[in-house]
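Quick one, probably user error.
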């Protein structure tokens, strides 16, 4: 078959859940700046989404 499902192994689940939790925690952390409206803020500068991106850039080095 041309399309085969991706193998879902149990060692990938913690990575998926961990990245989902980190994204949610970041949005909650910047919610006082309006982070829950991240779709609207993709194009605006100085918004909570940009602050979250700067936070992750600073955190990850």
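Nope, works fine. Designed sequence:
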């Amino acid at each position: 078959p041309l399309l085969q499902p991706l193998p879902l192994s149990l060692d990938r689940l913690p990575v998926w859940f961990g990245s989902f939790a980190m994204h949610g925690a970041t949005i909650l952390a910047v919610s006082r700046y309006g982070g829950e409206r991240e779709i609207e803020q993709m194009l605006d500068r100085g918004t909570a989404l940009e602050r979250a991106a700067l936070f992750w850039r600073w955190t990850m080095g």
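The longest helix spans residues 13-29.
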